[in-house]
Amino acid sequence: MPTAPSSIVADDLDRDGDKDLAVASQDNSVTVFLNDGSANLERQAPFDYGTGWSPRWLTGADLDGDGDIDLATSNYYTDDITILFNLTNTYYVAGDANGDGLVDVGDVVCLTSFLYRDGSAPDPLWTGDCNCDQVVNLGDVVHLINYLFKAGPPPGCE
Ligand SMILES: [Ca+2]
Ligand SMILES: [Ca+2]
Ligand SMILES: [Ca+2]
Ligand SMILES: [Ca+2]
Fold it and tell me: What is the pTM of this model?
């Protein structure tokens, strides 16, 4: 199990008919366990998903209206929420442009490299759309930097 689990959700996260589990932990992560149909729960690779500081509550709902269950945590110390969007059983965090599960300065580097140095695009591209205006540009880099260093609002549409 992850360290200091604080909240758990049981829902059919991969839409194969059985209940799966997602666990939020106070080490700032969400871990997804998928059910193989025989109540064997397998921790989903390749990583736990990063959240704000010390998530205390986790819930599952179809937040983007595409039919699958997305996850959201409320984070105690950062006073914000983290939304994990379900994309064919893999979760993506808005702002996680380099896809390592964390929103940090590596994503600023990834975005600036994509925009100005022919670096590879965020995959999926919308993870780079930090300010939710449907385009990926300098405004998203600014939004991300404000979030990381100036206590600005988190990336994503809220
Ligand atoms: Ca399932
Ligand atoms: Ca969804
Ligand atoms: Ca990242
Ligand atoms: Ca944008």
Answer: 0.73
